[in-house]
Specification:
With about 160 residues, the protein is α+β, with helices and mostly antiparallel strands. The protein has one domain (about 15-155). Helix content is about 45%, strand content about 15%. It contains three helices and five strands. It has a five-stranded antiparallel sheet, with helices on one face. The longest helix is centred in the first third of the chain and has 54 residues, at about 15-65. The radius of gyration is 28 Å and the shape is rod-shaped. The mean pLDDT is about 85.
């Protein structure tokens, strides 16, 4: 039988282990900010996707109201329908139109009636961020657009 000597043992020295740990620490220090940047970008994209879902749901509900005798005052049930269709977390939603459905009797053109039932402004806020739709594009700052009629939906997530 062979006797084992201390010099026959194989393994890593303390210096080699420290060098490996230093290399891993440097890699972690380099990668962490990059990964956090990707996480922030993903959250921003998620906020935009959620807001687009709310916009679509709001436009569907407004189109539905166009077919009904809508007096211009959205009920809680109608607001809840938008939230249920969008199925996204939110803290605040403001839906705006360029016309007022309560003044439809005075509307003389198709464009005026159309403006009352077309979403031309949307504000969406959740715990990850907020975004606005100004009628043509999505912006991260409050646009100078002022809706003629606005419907607010507020709830905690």
């Amino acid at each position: 039988m062979k006797k084992w000597k201390a010099s026959d043992k194989k393994g890593f020295t303390l210096v080699e282990l420290i060098v490996v740990m230093v290399i891993l620490a440097i890699l972690a220090a380099i990668l962490t900010p990059a990964l956090l940047g990707y996480i922030d970008k993903a959250k921003e994209k998620q906020v935009l996707l959620n807001a687009k879902s709310v916009l679509t749901a709001a436009q569907v509900e407004m189109s539905s109201l166009y077919a009904k005798d809508f007096d211009g005052n959205m009920t809680d049930t109608q607001k809840n329908e938008i939230v249920a269709m969008a199925d996204v977390p939110y803290t605040s939603i403001v839906i705006g139109t360029a016309g007022d459905a309560s003044a439809l009797e005075a509307a003389s053109t198709v464009e005026e009636r159309h403006a009352a039932f077309t979403v031309s402004y949307l504000y969406y806020e959740c715990s990850d961020g907020r975004i606005w739709f100004d009628g043509t594009s999505w912006v991260e700052e409050d646009p100078s657009v002022t809706p003629v009629k606005a419907y607010t939906i507020t709830e905690t997530e």
